[in-house]
Amino acid sequence: MRGPASRMIGHLVFSEVENALAASSVLCLPMGSIEQHGPHLPLNTDCVIAEALTRRIVARWGDEHDLWQLPVVPVGLSREHAWAPGTLSLTVSGMTAYLRDLGFELVRALPARNLLIVNGHGGNRGILEAVTREMGDVGLNIATLHLGAMMSPDTAADVPEIHAGKDETSIMLVLAPELVRREALAALNPAPGGGTTQALVFDPAASYPWSSDDPRLSASGIMGDPRGASAAHGEILIARVVEGAGAVMRRLEHNAATKRRG
Question: Where in the chain are the domains?
């Protein structure tokens, strides 16, 4: 069966909502950030990636799983980049309140009871894991895709891809090549090796409030090595994310069925 002409919630008029969506529909919420991404990528990199990959996920899986795209949430938790001009960040309490209010509004305004958060900023992960547990109380069945982990799963690399490195830069070369400062890209150096990064960022036994201006972790605000970035590599990463979203969608549906039986 052919799906609707558009799966953007914002493209509907109010009288179409109840017929277009059902309780089993999945709302897809892209979440980004406004923060420094080195001298070669724009402040809204995470927003661009989250919104565009959500659009591609909806195009690939929308008819099969009845997906609908919500507008992007542009500002998240970015205190690790607060040293840089242009970085915007909510507080923990502010973002918690925002997410809870948004959850209540989705339930009030729309028939859908499934929510897929497409998170484009690694700094949002902790708050999302905590708050989405509570958001289930308002009647939403929730899953979160963390795009950074899907794009760059190898955290044990000599120079891990964490922020504005090869992977993010490659995806931006596909999605918004006009925003990549190629002249700055050619002059960049890689971030330091992975020893300190493993200790300060990825240690499962201890956590630290690290910052991306720490010279032990980054170079020019970059945590990774963007010098090998290419559109071809970006296409591979995008395909990985879009196809990988299918398994998450099936798990989300399984979770919903389990809750109904319970």
Answer: 9-261
